[in-house]
Amino acid sequence: MNYVYLDNAATTKIDPRVAEVVAHAGEMDFYNSAALYGPSLLVKQKIQAARGVILKRLCKSGDGELVFTSGATESNNIVIFSKAVKHGRVLLLEGEHSSAHMPIKHLKDNGYTVEMIPLMNNGLANPHAIGGAGDGAPTLVVFGLVNSDTGTIQDAQSFVREIRARYKNAHIHCDATQGFCKIPFDAMELDLDSVAISAHKIGGPKGIGALWVKKGVHLKPQMHGGGQQILRPGTENTPGILGFAKSVEIYETQKNLVHVGKLHTHLIKHLPNGCTINGLNNNPYITNIQLSNVLGQTVMNALGNDGILVGLGSACSSNSSINRTLVAMGINEQKTRQVLRISFSPTNTIKDVDAFTSALKKNACQN
Ligand code: PMP
Fold first, then answer.
1. Which atom of ligand 1 is nearest to the CA of 201?
2. In 3D, which of 282, 277, 294, 274 has the Cα closest to residue 329?
């Protein structure tokens, strides 16, 4: 079936130009990049060039180190387990993705002091409300650039400034998975210590991501093995890495923002009466729609029968019944089950939006 796919925050279809690079690298660049003969050295050079492409996209100056990982989940985990210490505190923004929330919950369950930074009703962080209840100064602060449930883009500059003013020595880690390439930002200009990103949200392959680390910042490896990348051992995923770089290279941030912006404007204009938007909707890629008195799951299933695929929220928490982001924004639990998440990719069209809004009218507005 040819679906209308509107759950691109969960994952995107690989771009055919990227798929070609992945297939070619699998066939031709299969040599282990750590071996010492000629073809391996060529593979190593290609990986280094790919690293440069992605690094430049993260910060114009190309500063810092880029370590390839299996995805943003791994990148978040490396930083969290490296920087949390028992005698300090960990601060985590409410509503973060499970790949940051769950490792920090694990730490909390094991006796670490964890403090949540609250969200305001519009989904923006409220760093002024940090309680300061714990004993030591925080060693680690974790926040997302773009919330994966509401799409809200944090005011990262003010957030980091506030954290730095309070806790000079804290490591500030940003999960930029939903923003990388889509929303302009610069890791160095934002004064971040580390950033997690992933390829499969921007038409890249699955199972490949990266961790950017500011120059001079030391992280402890969480796995031990060969010496390929010191922070992250294991044979490098050459097809994934080259595919990731290709997806970054061909992603046209401004042009795509204009196109997705048009889709978003059209969506908002044609939403059925009774539907509202949750959170500051300052990002056209993701929209969290509040339905009136009908379960999101019910509507999602009905739309699925019409060939339209939408989400309920972050796919990694969609099997748990509450949406942590919406609850943190003060929305009552019953209403958090009455939402849909629409997320675009640059390949979506106005026709896709029309198919969605008319199916939504049919399935969610019978009262
Ligand atoms: N962080 C955010 C904000 C995400 O949306 C996702 C993917 N849903 C991840 C982390 C995890 O990324 P990956 O699938 O690459 O592990």
1. 7
2. 277
